[in-house]
Amino acid sequence: MGLTDSLSNYFGFEEHGTDLPTELLAGVTTFLTMSYIVIVNPSILAVAIVEGPGPDVGRSFAEVQQMLAVVTLISAAVATFVMALYANRPFGQAPGLGLNAFFAFTVVLGLGIPWNTALAAVVVEGVVFMLLTAAGAREYIIRVFPQPVKFAVGGGIGLFLAIIGLDAMRVIASEPVTYIQLSPVFAQDPVAVVGVVGLLFTFALYARGIPGSIVFGILGTSVLGAVVSGLGYSAYSPQRLQENMGVTIADASLAPSVESLTYSAAGYDISPLVGAFLSGFENVDALGFALVVFTFFFVDFFDTAGTLTGVSQIAGFLDEDGNLPDIDKPLMADAIGTTVGGILGTSTVTTYIESATGVEEGGRTGMTALVVAILFVGSLAIVPLASAVPLYASHIALVVIAVLMLRNLVEIDWADYTHAVPAGLTMLVMPFTYSIAYGIAAGIISYPIVKAAAGEFEDVRPGHWVLAAAFVAYFVVRTGGILRATL
């Protein structure tokens, strides 16, 4: 039996209606769209480790970034290998964007908690997740999700992806009055122009039904950006726009410097980070530590639940009730990833919404995830592929997927107000608060209220009220000043 046959039997290609070339292409697509985290995660966490409270690692800022890049790659690879070989699902995993910002800017720099103590909280969260998953509690909680919330998650994630993608492409800008607007220098900014050309090119390939359209679109946009850069054009300065108009656009470069991302020998020595969480348990305030764990737990739990449900909806994995069969396996992969990541020295590892890009290319099994994991490992020996793909180029895939994910909204019964309210809030709150978890929270809190108001008590389970109350408690802790007052 050849390698192809062995892989086909192990992952069940025939059962899932796929084949090896499709899975390989899907894996490359997912990797390209989530590989930005190899650059972004170190840049966020390094600030907390170098400038925040906690033990001195004895390295320069650049070396800390390099160490974190290695840790990011290893933790992403381990978690995604588990997803591939144990869960057999096409989902990529890595340290979560947003969770790392909460770790660095809120917990460490904002609350003054040492970075190694914050890592200890991540490890505890991961262990709790593993125990709850093994007991089936996480699966039960997700199954209690109201049906309209489940069906709205995909559309909400789509809107969330669109904002992330358009921001990276510098098509949109932030402004104090309107919050979001078209970049006022759109036509003057080569990054925005190249990004939109690449986006339209990708849509055209997709409309023609060309396999690998998203990969070709990303690579084509990268090449076009390099050509434009070679002609002497450069990105419009964000600082100049901020000074002249008070409007902010994302930092970007047409041609990223590959040399700046090469690893030094010190960058490969991650010993100052590995196991640092152990010293983080020393002299901790029990209540404050528990609240930090609680916050990490809540955000990660519902981010993962939303991502798994939304991406699975695209893949056709959900049953007639909107549930993902055998969801305990990808949940366990997520829990293991978080635990391993905290031990190695990074913030919470989670399932990536960018997995939708690979699923859209036809990825249906763990083979897709296996390709992603192998590419993460391979990136340890060479300059990460992310360094060759500008952020604005990789993120056109997010806009493509955002448009495609909106088609799932037809499954919501919009004529029923008790479905329209939680579904609509789920979708709208996600992009406007920049959080999948908050969108789910809005839907879950509103569902039992509108159902009870309509007199449809038979549709409301005790679990709905418990989840709603838990979210209310979370928001009180997270935004009511309790966390800061306790520390």
Could you characterize the architecture of this molecule?
The protein has one domain. It is mainly alpha-helical and 487 residues long. Helix 2 packs across helix 16 and helix 8 packs parallel to helix 19. It starts with a helix and ends with a helix. The strands form two sheets. It has a two-stranded antiparallel sheet. It has a two-stranded antiparallel ribbon with strand order 2-3. The protein contains 22 helices and four strands.
Beta percentage is under 5%
Unreliable stretches covering 5 or more consecutive residues: 383-387
Q: What order do the strands of the largest sheet run in, or round the barrel if closed?
A: 1-4
Q: Tell me, what's the shape? A: globular
Major beta-sheet overview: 2 strands, antiparallel
Overall structural domain count: 1
Structural class: mainly alpha
Question: What's the total helix number?
Answer: 22
Helix content: 55-70%
Tell how many strands the DSSP assignment holds. 4
On the 0 to 100 scale, the average pLDDT is 86
- The succession of helices and strands, N to C, reads HHHHEHHHHEEHHHHHHEHHHHHHHH
**N- and C-termini, Cα separation:** 61 Å
Radius of gyration: 22 Å
